[in-house]
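Field notebook, page 316. I keep forgetting to write these up properly, so this time I am using the form the group agreed on. The chain and the ligand, iron/sulfur cluster, are recorded exactly as supplied. Prediction of the bound pose follows.
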Amino acid sequence: MTVLLEVKELQKYFSPPMLRAVDGVSFTVRKGETLGIVGESGCGKSTLGRVILRLLDPSGGQIFYNGKNITGLNSRQMLPYRKKMQIVFQDPAGALNPKLTIGRALGETLRVHRLAEGRKEVEEKVVSLLSLVGMGSEHLDRYPHQFSGGQRQRIVLARALAVQPELMVCDEPVSALDVSIQAQIMNLLAELQETLGLSYIFIAHNLSVVKHISDRIAVMYLGKIVELADKQSLFQNPRHPYTQALLSAVPVADPQLRRKRIILSGEVPSPLNPPSGCRFRTRCPHAFDRCAREEPILRQTASNHQTACHLGSGPT
Ligand code: SF4
Ligand code: MG
């Protein structure tokens, strides 16, 4: 599959004081695939999503879109890429202007981007956008507060799709919704991907959410990717102790496949003052001396599987 997005050693530091929110992250996203990014709150995953879209400037590293280095582009040069890459956030209420009917909100997006002109064409396109997300034209004259959370997230998706993006960064798009509605939105995202050939970066704080939709999954801890693998490999054979702990919390129907729950001790340390060596060592049940001295790098541990851990990596 063709690579659509590549990030190399991406960094985002906030200062003062020095907070390394994203600290040397590399991965690719291929056309039509979903990369899940998972980690506890504060691990840098949302910052990463914003840096990729250049909503925040990176402090270091590079971003390539379709082979083109977009890291240093100014906002005018970024315009065509802003259409190709869209972001959808957790809170669909805050993303919509409460004073505009959704017909007008979607129509305005189409007009601003010159994707439709004249009342009739705009209305037709708005109606087809709504139908893409499973909503009928009877909703055109209603305001955001008149919709449920799930419907609002559909509208936000329709607006993102208006500009015909290729890559969507979905930052916890279902976390604020009821469980039954979450499944509907996840199914819709999967359908849209299929129909439109979209690529997704899907950000979530637990593995259950990204399980079905992802092709590959990156696990983040304190600004770094600690494991990156094909979904199947990650679920069947997690090698990083942090991934193992996250996975042990995922509910499994089949009792034979159930894992013993691994409870991590302590809290995630402050990113202002991460532990030396392996950042996970203060909570790792397998930590040994080398872990405090030396930072593990992400290395190939199986085909389509990379892990950043000293366990099993041979002597120093
Ligand atoms: Fe645990 Fe050491 Fe591996 Fe870090 S490098 S995850 S502390 S065993
Ligand atoms: Mg977040």
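OBSERVATIONS:
- The chain has a mean pLDDT of 94.
- Residues 41, 46, 172 surround magnesium ion (ligand 2) (CB under 6 Å).
FOLLOW-UP: compare against the apo run.
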